[in-house]
Design brief:
86% helix, 156 residues, mainly alpha, binds protoporphyrin IX containing FE
Length: 156
Amino acid sequence: MAWEYLKFFHLCFAFIMMGGIFLSQYAIVYARKTTEPGIFATYLKMSAVGGKMSMIGLVSVSLLGVLTAWQQDLDLTATGWLNAAYGTAILALIIPFFTFARWEKQAAQLMPDALTQGQVLPEQHRLVGGPQYRGINIVMTILIVWMLVLMVFKPF
Ligand code: HEM
């Protein structure tokens, strides 16, 4: 019966992860709209909090997922959808470190210049709103939807 509890907590952390993603995404949408440096900096911090929340959620979801599968007596190495889930989770963990987190950090490092000029710099808006940021957003959305397809339909 332990797997029911594990699955319940697995789902709780999936909601925490999704909450973090929404927080981060909303903060960035508003950061793109403002020209006021102080407000921009606050949204960047909110996005960083959301990012941490989603990463902690993803690691916990994955660990609890493996424990659930183990308690369900699934073969942890030879079950297709589980293997695909490991790969998807690893990609979803790694990609944001080299993209969102890096770009938002670069935008934060430009804050002193923005404060001197009294407005958000075009480079800061480009870092969090340019095509590269939007492109990775699409990649991450596809990964999350793919993960849900794996979980619910277990296609292989
Ligand atoms: C390495 C990562 C993961 C592993 C090993 C894993 C494993 C599992 C297992 C064993 C179950 C129980 C299946 C069942 O009882 O039918 C499950 C269910 C579920 N997982 Fe995951 N999971 C992982 C990541 C995720 C992530 C990131 C999400 C959210 C995006 C997620 C969402 C769900 C959902 C919604 C269910 C319920 C599916 C249903 O009952 O139809 N899982 N997962």
